[in-house]
From TrEMBL:
Keyword match Chaperone: no
Official protein name in the record: Nucleoside diphosphate kinase
Catalytic activity: a ribonucleoside 5'-diphosphate + ATP = a ribonucleoside 5'-triphosphate + ADP; a 2'-deoxyribonucleoside 5'-diphosphate + ATP = a 2'-deoxyribonucleoside 5'-triphosphate + ADP
Gene source species: Actinopolymorpha cephalotaxi
HAMAP family the record matches: NDP_kinase
Subcellular location: Cytoplasm
Cofactor(s) needed for function: Mg(2+)
Function as written in the Swiss-Prot or TrEMBL entry: Major role in the synthesis of nucleoside triphosphates other than ATP. The ATP gamma phosphate is transferred to the NDP beta phosphate via a ping-pong mechanism, using a phosphorylated active-site intermediate.
Binding site for ATP: K10, F58, R86, T92, R103, N113
Amino acid sequence: MSERTLVLIKPDAVSRGLVGEILSRYERKGLALVAAELRTIDAATADVHYAEHVEKAFYPPLRDFVTSGPLLAAVLEGDQAIEVVRALNGATDARKAAAGTVRGDLALSNRENLVHGSDSAESAAREIALWFPKL
Ligand code: CMP
């Protein structure tokens, strides 16, 4: 079933010049780009996006990281897009992510892991409404 998911190509990917490489992996897989915008977010927006993590010990440095510079927010569409993007991204901890995945090939950090993908249909709906309210 075709569905939409929200992807963040995070500030580490933008500063390292990896946006094209990462977007191209999604496109080559067959996912369609529905919306994309380069944006620098403030702490309040980070807190809404990461609402489920705000109380966790790793959150303050995560908030500093995601607000540190521009990121590319995008909506991708395709058959099982949520699961497909998460498989392409690889495990959250890039040090443990499998080779062949975005994180496994291109990152070496649990925090600065290049990408975010919605983790469920509910998260995708919430995150797309937050980042792209006009969609
Ligand atoms: P993301 O998929 O965007 O979802 C939450 C983010 O928090 C995650 O990617 C990482 O960037 C970060 N994160 C999750 N767990 C940890 C952790 N244990 N230590 C540091 N950062 C983490």
